[in-house]
Amino acid sequence: MKTFPLFLIFVCYSLNAQNLELDKQGGALYQSDDDSFVFRVGVEQVNISFSAFDNKGAILDLTTDQVRVVEIVTRNGRKQEIERIPDYFNKSQDLPLRLGLLIDSSGSSGVPNSYSDALRGFKDPSRSVLKRGGLIASQTIATIWELLKNDNGNNNKIFLGEIGYEGDGEPNFFTLRTDWTSNISKVVNTISKQKSGGSSPLFAAVLGAAIQQFGQNSDINSEDCASLLIVISDGQNTLSTNGLAPISYAQAINLPIYTIAVIPDYYDVITRRQFISNLKSLSDQTGGQFNELPGPNKIADIAHRIARNFRDRYYIGYPLDPDYNDLPSNNDFIELRVEIGSADFNGEWRKRKDVTVFHKSGYFVNPRVIVE
């Protein structure tokens, strides 16, 4: 059963046709008495994905007694640590892959133009489905899919979405180009037809993709799938929407976001720093990973880095503490800490100091995000 922490988003920009479609699909967006817009997700389960590394690389043989989950909650100005016992423990290699690819097609980024050959290489290298695109680009981008795939065959799926597309009528913050499919050639062919232009509603697009493709009414269950979202963008955000909305939602549904920054050289240092900050916030706080792409020759390195970080993940979960629903709205962020170690002869927990664990920073119980 799919369950999520209670999640509220207050959104003050006007809804267009794109947002109304999300209302139908998410089934949770409604207008409140003060004309704000509220998004709700159900209560019950906290889901966490994490990966652990020591000086030898990824740790692949962890068991439940080697993992400790600690929640840090602030009450009456004092922090309290509470250990949680997972009620399930899965490995990503055993789960079907659900990979979302979100590409910035805005005029500022022009990703489809600048890196079209590289992106066309995002295919299954075992089949010669493309005649276009350089051999190196095909091999490197294909690494992401190839390394993340497992033995689940057609149960592994990918979708392609677009940021900043503006067609007839109202602009769309998130445009679904190819829905969930195991046909990589279909995704690649769609990428090759994309055109750059339009605005850069980065955060709204990420939120829209998360809700529509991974959200409550989708068939993606964080307990049953290894899910991630890869965002390729220059990091520009042209709407007033801030990053807290997509970050909070991704934390609630346990969706790590991996970002690849493709930033043109003509931006000044301050602007570039802001764009990087936008992308890093999406990745760092959801348990994903930030990557900067200085040129197509570095795609292979980034592909391997993403694959290594994600493919060796573990998935755990436990019921939400019902007492958290009484926390005040300005103090309801629950910090998370996942530790690797073991109990000593006296039953005392001993954390391994040589291990680095990657996971989301925490989650909101009742987050309220006001966008003006």
UniProtKB/TrEMBL annotation:
<dbReference type="InterPro" id="IPR002035">
    <property type="entry name" value="VWF_A"/>
</dbReference>
<protein>
    <recommendedName>
        <fullName>VWFA domain-containing protein</fullName>
    </recommendedName>
</protein>
<dbReference type="InterPro" id="IPR036465">
    <property type="entry name" value="vWFA_dom_sf"/>
</dbReference>
<feature type="domain" description="VWFA">
    <location>
        <begin position="98"/>
        <end position="306"/>
    </location>
</feature>
